[in-house]
Design goal:
Keywords: Acetylation, Repeat, Ubl conjugation pathway, WD repeat. This protein is an alpha+beta fold. The chain has helices at about 5-20, 20-35, 40-50, 55-60, 60-70, 75-80, 85-90, 95-105, 115-135, and strands at about 140-145, 150-155, 160-165, 170-175, 180-185, 190-195, 200-205, 210, 220, 230-235, 240-245, 250-255, 260-265, 275-280, 290-295, 300-305, 315-320, 330-335, 340-345, 345-350, 355-360, 370-375, 380, 385-390, 395-400, 415, 435-440, 445-450.
């Protein structure tokens, strides 16, 4: 058939075909397919695949596309980004998808940032960091060398680490460079806490002292305990210093004058930890903004309303066993809303508003695991061999890091968590600096630090 005649025939049959019902069209196609050979069937098969495809992301309204994308996991979304430039543009523009993906990884989300490309980049950065944690490759180690005797006291703040030693000195280190900024002569230090101007030390000589960094001078001496002072805390706004001692007491001092304002009794073991912190929740016993003192011994945690009156009475005593058969670990977490402490039974979290136990976390072989830090998303734990990171949403250990043979003695070793903000969720900025520090048998300080992002 000539081309001209074929085109006329095709136009005529097309008009007739369009006038048929759907059933008649189907019967016509069935008949034509039955008359077709292999070449025609192959041609039909190839063209049907193309004709049946629909680019739904291109055809749908953007809001509907975003709704559908929310049901896909991030890894699938990244694969979908490779389909076409259009798909990559639509998927990358879905802010909520990438924010949700970051949240699921334990990342902090700043809802004020609405740039979708920013959140896609954050997610890719988060994936890398979480893979490093899973593969036990997120950290690196370093050492601080300078003391000539056992280092017992450690305190960390804003990139600076203070160490107190039996060599009768205290040193302030820049963790990022490993350089010693200040070194002053002190007494034997069992506890240290510092700010820009001063250092406060609790000592095995039963006293507390305040020192000036710039000159090394002792500006105040607090005498009155009859046992070693294992823990100190202070607040310049209240002009109060508190100390916990092996004499089973907690003393409240005027920070500026060194006068003992009150002695809090009731403990029947060494008081190994005192924490002075603002309350963030309301109850019948306290209001947000009240200053609270926590003191802990081997078996109990006592709560004192230190901000209202110096001559305060104990509000509550917390423990994990009535018969004192279970000991508490000396490290204590209190952020104004929750109290957390570890024991051989597990990790205990109390609600500060009600004093009720919210939960008990029991990872495998928890009898040897101790608490270092506790946040909204992650907890930092350790035992004799490893440093652990736990996802508190699942109560699963997601990473570990080997620890060296650190010092073991009758008085124990000093351990310290570094930067703590990442425990409330990583954000790509707070996963840097010090993670963990401990004293070593050779009098050095072993540091575990975040590796820089790749």
């Amino acid at each position: 058939m000539e081309k001209k005649d074929f085109e006329a025939w095709l136009d005529n049959i097309s008009i007739t075909f369009l006038s048929l019902t759907d059933l008649q069209k189907n019967e016509t196609l069935d008949y034509l397919i039955s008359l077709s050979g292999a070449v025609q069937l192959r041609h039909l098969s190839n063209n049907l695949e193309i004709l049946l495809k629909r680019d739904f992301l291109k055809l749908l309204p953007l809001e509907l596309s975003f709704y559908l994308l929310k049901w896909l996991d991030p890894q699938t979304l990244l694969t979908c980004c490779l389909v076409s430039k259009q798909w990559n543009k639509v998927i990358s523009a879905c802010t909520e998808v990438w924010q949700t993906a970051c949240k699921n990884l334990g990342w902090q989300i700043d809802d004020s940032v609405q740039d979708p490309l920013h959140w896609k980049k954050v997610y890719l950065k988060a994936i890398l960091r979480m893979k490093q944690l899973k593969d036990h490759e997120a950290f690196e180690t370093s050492s601080l060398i300078g003391h000539s005797a056992r280092v017992y006291a450690l305190y960390y703040k804003d990139g600076l680490l203070c160490t107190g030693s039996d060599d009768l000195s205290a040193k302030l280190w820049d963790v990022s460079t490993g350089q010693c900024i200040y070194g002053i002569q002190t007494h034997t230090c069992a506890a240290v806490k510092f700010d820009e101007q001063k250092l406060v030390t609790g000592s095995f000589d039963n006293t507390v002292a305040c020192w000036e960094w710039s000159s090394g001078a002792k500006t105040q001496h607090f005498r009155g305990h009859t046992g070693a002072v294992f823990s100190v805390d202070y607040n310049d706004e209240l002009d109060i210093l508190v100390s916990g001692s092996a004499d089973f007491t907690v003393k409240v001092w005027a920070l500026s004058t060194g006068t003992c304002l009150n002695t809090l009794t009731g403990h029947t073991e060494w008081v190994t930890k005192v924490v002075l912190q603002k309350c963030k929740v309301k109850s019948l016993m306290h209001s947000p903004g009240d200053y609270i003192l926590l003191s802990a011994d081997k078996y109990e945690i006592k709560i004192w309303p230190i901000g209202r009156e110096i001559n305060c009475k104990c509000l509550k005593t917390l423990s994990v066993s009535e018969d004192r058969s279970i000991s508490l670990q000396p490290r204590l977490h209190f952020d104004g809303k929750y109290i957390v402490c570890s024991s051989a039974l597990g990790l205990y979290q109390w609600d500060f508003a009600s004093y009720n136990i919210l939960r008990v976390i029991k990872p495998p072989d928890f009898s040897n695991v101790s608490l270092l830090g506790f946040g909204e998303i992650f907890a930092l734990l350790f035992d004799n061999r490893y440093l652990y990171i736990m996802d508190l949403r699942t109560e699963k250990l997601i990473s570990r890091w080997p620890l060296p043979e650190y010092r073991k003695s009758k008085r124990g070793s000093s351990f310290l968590a570094g930067e703590m903000s990442w425990l409330n969720g990583l954000n790509g900025q707070n996963d840097m600096g010090l993670v963990f520090a401990t004293s070593m048998p050779d009098h050095s300080i072993h540091l575990v630090l975040w590796k820089e992002h790749g």
